[in-house]
Amino acid sequence: MAIDKKKIIVVGCGPGALDYITPAAADAAAEADVLIVSPRLKDLFPESSAERIDSGTDVAAILEVMASRRDQGLRVVLLAMGDPGIFSLAKPVIDRFGRENCEVIPGISSVQVAFARFGLDWQDARIISAHLSEPERAADSLRAVGKIAVLGGRESDPAEAAAILREELGDEWRLFLCEDLTLPGERIREIGAGASPPRPSKRAIALFIRSELLS
Known about the structure:
Blueprint: E1 8-12, H1 23-30, E2 34-37, E3 51-54, H2 59-71, E4 76-80, H3 90-97, E5 102-105, H4 110-117, E6 126-129, H5 135-142, E7 147-151, H6 158-169, E8 173-179, E9 187-191, E10 204-210
Parallel strand pairs: 1-4, 1-5, 2-3, 2-4, 6-7
Antiparallel strand pairs: 7-10, 8-9, 8-10
């Protein structure tokens, strides 16, 4: 008897607060046989009886685990922080299994929330990773824009990366560290020129905003 291989569902779980998880995301999680989760999401959807597997840091390994469960006819759901379209496992999952075998449920990203806190649109913002190995080169391509979001990763600190980049961008920019957005401990603080970047929480992004946009 042929096994019905179900689509892998990649679900955006928002920036942290339960209020920011969409009903579509909750429905997908409720129907899962297997939940692939990061440590930050391990306690999400406690009512689910699905098998929970830590996504870990070895992308190739977790893709093989997902393939194995899918080959058994199980419904595999990957929970992603924020929106799956911004620096998530969605791309390697789709590359591995093919678009026709995947479904992506979008979520609310921390980038959306951060700019909303300032009352700013973000359709023209640049979004970059905190892994800035060549900040001078990055700055050359960023000077023409007015808004920049620097995202952290498992081992990267957006505040440190932003402080390095700031030296190259110049004084016409203001730098803000946004931590734990939508959570009870949410904090947004400005990092002044020359100040040492604080060690942020694990749920943090840095925003560069041109001064004239905030006047």
